Amino acid sequence: xxxxxxxxxxxxxxxxxxxxxxxxxxxxxxxxxxxxxxxxxxxxxxxxxxxxxxxxxxxxxxxxxxxxxxxxxxxxxxxxxxxxxxxxxxxxxxxxxxx
Length: 99
What we know:
Layout: H1 11-22, H2 28-35, H3 39-52, H4 65-97
Helix pairs in contact: 1-3, 2-3
């Protein structure tokens, strides 16, 4: 455990590890030792699970539902702004022709 750990843990593994602490009342140090992971990592997982519930441990590259909706709305806003700018330019071009 002395060097940087590059293992990837599944969502279920993290949930089960935290449940050993919360539901079974096992000490963090003992669970960490049994699972061969750093105790600080277990504390981090516990905080995330308590704070986010079912949305905890969504994985790399995945967003929480509200974050995904925000991102979608931001993209849509950019598209609408581009369309508005195009229409403004077109209005300018057509209004010059009629004069």
